[in-house]
Amino acid sequence: VIMDSLLGALLALTLSTPTVAFVPIGGGAFTHVSITGTALLQKVTDSCRAVAEAAGHEFKPTGTSSGELVQACLGPRAPGEVSGAKFLSALQEINTQNGLVDRDFVNSAPHHFNSEAFLEGRGLITEGMVAIKANIRKENFKAARETLGRVLHTLQDFYSHSNWVELGYREPYSNLIRPDLPLESLADVNTPTCSDCPSGTCPNQILSNILKEKKLTSGYMGIFSSQKPK
């Protein structure tokens, strides 16, 4: 019960405070799962520090294990020995749902910000946030965690499947989680955005006017069809 209440508070803090970015640590290739795990632990650590300070005790983890992190969050006067097993299980629920988006929605352009589906993808994110907050209020934390995992997958795909980075941006696009703000300068399926690449290894395919006009465009993927816009 304590752990579910804690995760509810952490989820609420995650959604109500700005997260600077997903910042993987180390080198090599990063997957949705590794990026999500790193981001969650960073956010949990920040949130735990705030929870501990609000409770009047110093946040000083004795180590990096989940049990030590949770103990530092709950404070030295927490009754009994604190186990990190349920905490890890809760994080795994988020990671599992994140990964299942690729299996369950493989051909859904909005779930992956493919095929210029920017408005639809943003709709999935904002609708998911509403569902997460509603489940937290109902103390249905498992449903909140699972929805968070799916939302994070779509949010991450915006940055890997669009030209946001190529446009020179280095901060998250806050409009993706703000339904009251417009998504501007979007390409559509009729907008020429890149040069053809018969060999599949062509550099700098995005057209110069797309970059100059700061126009957002996305990748196209079709497992069962080779059709793509001209």
From TrEMBL:
This is VWA7 N-terminal domain-containing protein. Residues 1-21 form the signal peptide. Residues 67-230 form the VWA7 N-terminal domain. InterPro entries: VWA7, VWA7_N. Keywords: Signal. It holds the Pfam family VWA7_N.
